[in-house]
Amino acid sequence: MNEGPIERALGFYNLCLKTACLDGTVAFYRRLGFGPTGEDAPGLRVSLAKGPDVLTFMTFLEGDVINFRGAHIHALMTELRAAGVDVTGYNRRADQQPLMVDEVGAPLPQNACGHFTVYDPDGYELFFNTHPWERAPFEAAVRSGPAGPGACSDAVVYCVHVADLAASRSFYETLGLRVVPDARGAWVTPHPRDSAFHFALRLRADGGAGPALVLRWEAEDGAVPDGWGFVARDDGRWIGQDPDGRVLELVSGR
Asked: Which stretch of DSSP H or E encloses residue 170?
């Protein structure tokens, strides 16, 4: 990572979460206020949304994945490599749209699809993929331009624990993202120029184990219903787990 941050938008953000009990996990998150998106593959994949935030639960993943979709895959991959980011898995998955190339291997201009993977310094997977039908809405979002100081939806925050905060900050800044440090770690959000895209990633440098989801809870009385297995903390959070054992933190949205 020696050429400065990339300038290209990474794509629409999505969290792909491994599940061993798809129906139970989907029912659990529906109770937390998530709604269906209609982009499902019965028995394999279900996507749920809360505002602009999308969680996709998949039975066939090896682990949770940070997913970006819609960008021009070959151009983005070329820019990431030039910035010193290690790119793996290019066009290796048979279940994904491949990049179409001409007889000498050059990308066809009308096709910007394909897929590749990068890993952050702590081994968290970022998967970039694009299908043909995702190109037009992504380009329209890019053309819409900045709409404020940078988009950040904090209804769903993906928190990861990092061993070396400086290395993690450098990695995500190289991806062209906005990284704002604080006393416990750093926030990673879209660059202000990419305010059409929404997400919040939390880097925690407090020695915890494994990732967690922080969700805004908007009950009328601010309390979590009995029987959900959440434990109240003195700082106003409730800590619990989803059916797959993933750590959840509920924070009142009122």
From this structure: helix 165-174
Residue type, 216: R
Looking at 117-245, list the stretches that DSSP marks H as alpha helix, in order from N- to C-terminal side: 132-144, 165-174
Quick check: helix, strand or coil at residue 2? coil
Query: Which residue, among 176, 193, 179, 189, has the nearest Cα to 141 in the 3D structure?
Result: 193
Q: Work out the pLDDT band at 125, boundaries 50, 70, 90.
A: very high
Tokens matching residue 193: 């120029």
Q: What is the pLDDT of residue 108?
A: 60
Q: Which CATH class, in words, describes the domain spanning 12-252?
A: alpha beta
Helix (H), strand (E), coil (C) string for 23-36: HHHHHHHHHCCCEE
Residue whose entry in the numeric block shows the structure tokens 């190289």: 174
H or E stretch covering 76: helix 73-82
Retrieve residue 163's tokens: 């061993």
Retrieve residue 127's tokens. Answer: 């998967």
Return the amino acid letter for 41.
A
* The one-letter amino acid at 208: G
